[in-house]
Design a protein that fits this description.
27% helix, globular, 405 residues, alpha/beta, 8-stranded mixed sheet, single chain, binds flavin-adenine dinucleotide, 10 helices
């Protein structure tokens, strides 16, 4: 159940930039923009859930990988890894900011059919060309490194233990917000309920409490609710809330070495969590859009899918005990499972940062940086995100990411 809305009034009547949603994407954008040498404008972040209880960011599994099928996503994660591991330097050497590292247990994708193996080979070529350390392994090679797997049905695996694994996403989120606020960004507990469009621009934003603020640019960072915010401007955005379930469990006989984030052909994924605990996740075959306020667990999923898949792949996981579980939402882009970023082609001051389909936490540094560049220069200065622009939605031309977990 969503908590009743607590509203605050914004301090001004006009802001150069209004960001709708203050979780990972909204706060990354606010941080990069407020620290951009070429920007000295005013920024308002409007957040309907200021305790961040219900956002995707609060339900994430907080991992980063280089194993994507599109080069742009590899490059985005490369910057993500650089940013995470040099957080304090990026944040001006502020000694309050922690030094973070990535727990490089790696992701291991398993293929059980020739077609799936071909997909791993194709993605491997893209990743290696972009400088990632991905290795293809036969079942025997996997067994030699990780003897605990059952692999009789596996043809090929793909693993990378460089800049792949868990990182402390919440620490980065906290510091984005803290430093953005210190740089003058105003966070306001409120909900955007209206966007007034005048021809090719958004003129003003209406808040649930009734205030109307005029704006130079609006950035949609509303996560699984992004389509609702886009609809306020008359835009049809193909992003849906899709439920994703997570369980933390312990094993009667823990594994003798760190477990990579293993993507099983069944769709179930599992990884090391604590020293002796593991995290697993998945979703039902029927995967409809849900209400963004629906966080009910699917009680049959553990018994019917998750536990059997775990016990099949890792026989030691026959004897395990669930410690914690939760449901969260992907902001799922039904067109191509890739981000939608940049300006609307006809409403140039309405920017998207939506549809991350389960890989948005690691993309937040590159996405926030690129959005700040666009606002300052109407052009990208580092990574070119034009393949993610909304134009492809209008023409129905997917820019597909195949490595979706
Ligand atoms: C189970 C799970 C596991 C995941 N694992 C990973 C992972 O390992 N690695 C990874 O990179 N990514 C992962 N993700 C994805 C990642 O968590 C998200 O892509 C990322 O957190 C998205 O951040 P966001 O700011 O776009 O959206 P959100 O975190 O959902 O934030 C959107 C915010 O907008 C606010 N909002 C919405 N509408 C309005 C409005 N009208 N007015 C004001 N405020 C509004 C909401 O309250 C919310 O706080 C996972 C996601 C889930 C659910």
């Amino acid at each position: 159940m969503t908590a009743p809305l607590r509203t605050e009034a914004p301090k001004r009547r006009h802001y150069d930039v209004v960001i709708v949603g203050g979780a990972m994407m909204g706060s990354s954008t606010a941080w990069f923009l407020s620290h951009a040498p070429d920007f000295d404008g005013t920024i308002l972040v409007v957040e309907r859930d200021p305790r961040y209880e219900f956002c995707s960011t609060a339900h994430t599994n907080s991992c980063i990988r280089q194993q994507f099928s599109t080069e742009l996503n590899v490059r985005i994660s490369q910057f993500g890894a650089e940013f995470i591991q040099n957080l304090r330097r990026f944040m001006g050497g502020d000694t309050r900011v922690p030094e973070l590292r990535i727990q490089n247990f790696g992701y291991l994708y398993l293929a059980d059919s020739p077609a799936a193996a071909d997909r791993l080979r194709a993605s491997h070529a893209v990743q290696v060309a972009a400088g990632a350390g991905t290795r293809l392994l036969t079942a025997d090679q996997i067994r030699a490194e990780y003897p605990f797997y059952r692999l009789d049905d596996i043809l090929l695996g793909s693993i990378n233990t460089v800049d792949e694994g868990y990182w402390d996403g919440i620490a980065v989120f906290d510091w984005f917000r803290r430093q953005a606020r210190e740089a003058g960004v105003e966070y306001c507990a409120n909900e955007v309920v209206g966007l007034a469009r005048q021809g090719g621009r958004i003129d003003s934003v209406t808040l649930a409490s009734g205030e109307v603020v005029s704006c130079g640019t609006v950035v949609n960072c509303a996560g699984p609710r992004a389509a609702g915010v886009a609809a306020l401007a008359g835009i049809d955005l193909p992003v849906e809330p899709r439920k994703r379930f997570t369980w933390i469990f312990s094993a009667q006989t823990p594994l003798d070495r760190p477990l990579p984030l293993t993507i099983d052909p069944s769709g179930v994924h599992v990884r090391q969590d604590g020293a002796q605990t593991y995290m697993t996740g998945g979703h039902a075959e029927m995967d409809p859009a849900v209400d963004p306020a629906d966080f009910a667990m699917d009680l049959s999923l553990w018994e019917d899918l998750i536990w059997p898949a775990l016990a099949h792949r890792i026989p030691q996981f026959e004897a395990i005990r669930v410690l914690r579980e939760w449901a969260g939402h992907y902001a799922y882009n039904t067109l191509d499972q890739n981000a939608v970023a940049g300006p609307h082609p006809e409403i140039g001051n309405f920017l998207f940062l939506n549809g991350f389909s389960g890989h948005g936490l690691q993309q937040s540094p590159a996405m926030g940086r690129a959005t700040a560049e666009w606002i300052c220069h109407r052009a990208y200065r580092t990574l070119d995100l034009t393949p993610f622009h909304f134009d492809r939605v209008l023409t129905g031309t997917p820019y597909r990411e195949a490595a979706i977990i």
